[in-house]
């Protein structure tokens, strides 16, 4: 598949997707959205692929936000009637049941920060900078920032960032729970691919279920979430991979996964 605004390639069992508009700091326009949806659908459908990594091209940015040039003259009625930004969550997040990692290599601002937060977790380079500066453009986050950032870092920091537009550096982002780990800039991609390969080596159904369970913590109350967890756990005990995983442990060898 060839794309114009992204690249997608398979590295063993890992799909590497790269935002590829470096001249505009990988700003996210509608074409990027549609191409990402296609690349992630291909990843999801391919049984040889177990985890994806999303990163930005160039040395400066993961993505500096939704494309301001695309939005500047667009009438409000079009934003509303197209339900602008809805496809990011409905297609990219909800339709991707396999795990994926955002490898944030620079600016992740506005929609860029929001896209990174759609990933299952974020690995950040020491140069990463996160922010929701939409207020300075007379708007507000539209791709989930006010919700996901608040869930990740708590009200005080999320509110301050949204109201002032200030950026958070990688160290603060890790301390605040926004990123899983900070990695030296030059090692980010290798480390993200290595982490993704580890995940891709896990039993595939168990990987999807673990992802679904952790996400449920953001979507359900505690009682409902605990019940959901137990039921999914019980369902996994019926899989061949459960039998194989436990047998392999007892026989002191690696598991040989079937995905069922
Ligand atoms: N949309 C479109 N183009 C963008 C862009 C964006 N979000 N961010 C950067 N660019 C373009 C610039 O216009 C510039 O293009 P030209 O060379 O054609 O002028 C190029 O990328 C390089 O950018 P700068 O010259 O500005 O680079 P810098 O190093 O001086 O500054 C920056 C870097 C601080 C990230 C700055 O580019 C910036 O503030 N960008 C905008 C950040 C922003 O406001 N993001 C939120 C967008 S709205 C949104 O995302 C809504 C939502 O919730 C989904």
UniProtKB/TrEMBL annotation:
One of its GO terms (molecular function) is enoyl-CoA hydratase activity. InterPro entries: ClpP/crotonase-like_dom_sf, Enoyl-CoA_hyd/isom_CS, Enoyl-CoA_hydra/iso, Enoyl-CoA_hydra_C. CDD domains: crotonase-like. It catalyses: a (3S)-3-hydroxyacyl-CoA = a (2E)-enoyl-CoA + H2O; a 4-saturated-(3S)-3-hydroxyacyl-CoA = a (3E)-enoyl-CoA + H2O. One of its GO terms (biological process) is fatty acid beta-oxidation. It is an enzyme of class 4 (lyase). The keyword Lyase applies. Keywords: Fatty acid metabolism, Isomerase, Lipid metabolism, Lyase. It comes from the Bacteria. Could possibly oxidize fatty acids using specific components. Belongs to the enoyl-CoA hydratase/isomerase family. PANTHER family: ENOYL-COA HYDRATASE, MITOCHONDRIAL, ENOYL-COA HYDRATASE-RELATED. This is enoyl-CoA hydratase. It comes from Qipengyuania atrilutea.
């Amino acid at each position: 598949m060839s794309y114009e605004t992204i690249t997608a390639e398979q590295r063993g069992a890992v799909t590497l997707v790269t935002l590829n508009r470096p001249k505009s700091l990988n700003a996210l326009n509608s074409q990027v959205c549609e191409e990402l949806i296609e690349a992630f659908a291909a990843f999801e459908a391919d049984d040889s692929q177990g985890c994806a990594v999303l990163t930005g091209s160039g040395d400066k940015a993961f993505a500096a936000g939704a494309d301001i040039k695309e939005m500047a003259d667009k009438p409000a009625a079009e934003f509303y009637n197209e339900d602008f930004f809805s496809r990011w969550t409905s297609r990219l997040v909800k339709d991707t049941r396999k795990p994926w990692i955002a490898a944030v290599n620079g600016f992740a601002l506005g929609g860029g920060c929001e896209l990174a937060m759609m990933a299952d977790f974020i690995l950040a380079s020491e140069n990463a900078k996160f922010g929701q500066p939409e207020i300075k453009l007379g708007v507000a986050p539209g791709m989930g920032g006010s919700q996901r950032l608040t869930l990740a870092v708590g009200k005080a920091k999320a509110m301050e960032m949204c109201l002032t537009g200030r950026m958070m550096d990688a160290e603060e982002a890790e301390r605040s729970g926004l990123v899983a780990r900070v990695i030296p800039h030059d090692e980010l991609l290798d480390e993200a691919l290595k982490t993704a390969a580890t995940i891709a080596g896990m039993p595939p159904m168990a990987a999807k279920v673990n992802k679904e369970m952790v996400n449920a913590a953001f979507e359900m109350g505690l009682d409902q979430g605990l019940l959901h967890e137990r039921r999914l756990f019980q369902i996994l005990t019926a899989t061949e991979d459960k039998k194989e995983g436990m047998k392999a442990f007892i026989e002191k060898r690696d598991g040989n996964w079937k995905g069922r």
